[in-house]
From TrEMBL:
InterPro entries: AB_hydrolase_1, AB_hydrolase_fold. This is Haloacetate dehalogenase. Pfam families: Abhydrolase_1 (PF00561). Transmembrane segments: none annotated. It comes from Phytomonospora endophytica. Its EC number is 3.8.1.3. Keywords: Hydrolase. SUPFAM superfamilies: alpha/beta-Hydrolases. Residues 26-271 form the AB hydrolase-1 domain.
Length: 290
């Protein structure tokens, strides 16, 4: 797993990030989703490494990265904080300008990076995500039924108690498509109470401070200035909830987003790594990030 990559723990300010980095060429930052760690990217990263310098951190609150103390306004776990971590991490590794890919909860963090640090982000790729504010603005009984966990995770204390009673049953997954090392890393993470709390704080920030930041972006007319690739898993439910996915992202992009289906379930980096890496390579080639 991560053949030829270096494992580091890098202080980016108020947290230390566990990060793997390797390869050569124009840099790419990969941000994972919930409840994964950076190892979800291992098969994608190895495919990109001959063409790109690939950087894969555990986001703050997740895996073996730092766990800030929760705050009443949830700002220590905001996507703005995650984006600032990513920008500083890439600077410390010598990358002033880079592409970023975010999947699931990493998607809003990657979007925030492109909006808060436009001079740093050369290209933005997103998987299985729409802006948090779009979810909440359009929320109806279908969304509340299918993605009920967003609102359960926002409750104090009870989600931690429910999940930690049996994390393996709660989160599921199988070692067959993750690989044994990735599976072991994932299991250690979801059984760690500090990680579970950090992951839930991510969702609590989403319903509060993250939404406020995105609403401010919309009011100010801020949009993604760099090229944008949007991928979705064909066996997941995102397109069922948002058949106008392309229209949503047109509202957030100054250009025309590239829309690419990935033939997999939700965890596309594990289930279809070749397809994900191929879509990223084609996108980066098209926009000149080579």
């Amino acid at each position: 797993m991560f053949t030829g990559f270096t494992l580091d723990h890098i202080d980016v300010g108020d947290v230390v990030l566990r990060v793997r980095h390797g390869g050569e060429g124009p840099p790419v930052l990969l941000l994972h989703g919930h409840p994964r760690t950076h190892v979800t990217w291992h098969a994608v990263a190895e495919r990109l490494a001959p063409f790109h310098t690939v950087v894969c951190p555990d986001m703050r609150g997740y895996g073996q990265s730092g766990k800030p103390e929760p705050a009443d306004d949830h700002s220590p776990h905001s996507k703005r904080a995650v984006a600032a971590d990513g920008a500083e991490l890439m600077r410390l590794l010598g990358h002033e300008r880079f592409a970023v890919m975010g999947h699931d909860r990493g998607g809003p963090a990657a979007l925030r990076l492109a909006l808060d640090h436009p001079e740093r982000v050369a290209a933005l790729a997103l998987g299985d995500t729409v802006p948090i504010s779009e979810h909440l603005r359009r929320c109806d009984e279908r969304f509340a039924t299918a993605w009920w966990h967003w609102f359960f995770f926002a409750q104090p204390d009870k989600p931690e108690r429910a999940i930690l009673a049996d994390p393996a049953a709660w989160y599921g997954g199988t070692p067959e498509h993750m690989g044994p090392e990735a599976w072991d890393d994932y299991q250690k993470a979801i059984h760690d109470p500090a990680v579970v709390r950090g992951m839930l704080e991510d969702y609590r920030a989403g319903l509060t401070v993250d939404r406020a930041h995105e609403d401010a972006d919309r009011a100010a007319g801020r949009r993604v200035d760099c090229p944008l690739l949007v991928m979705w898993s064909t066996e997941d439910d995102l397109l069922e909830l948002y058949p106008d996915l392309d229209a949503i992202w047109r509202e957030w992009s100054a250009g025309e987003p590239r829309m690419v289906p990935i033939h997999s379930g939700h965890h596309m980096a594990e289930e279809a790594p070749g397809e994900v890496a191929g879509a990223l390579r084609a996108f980066f080639t098209e926009v000149g990030w080579v």
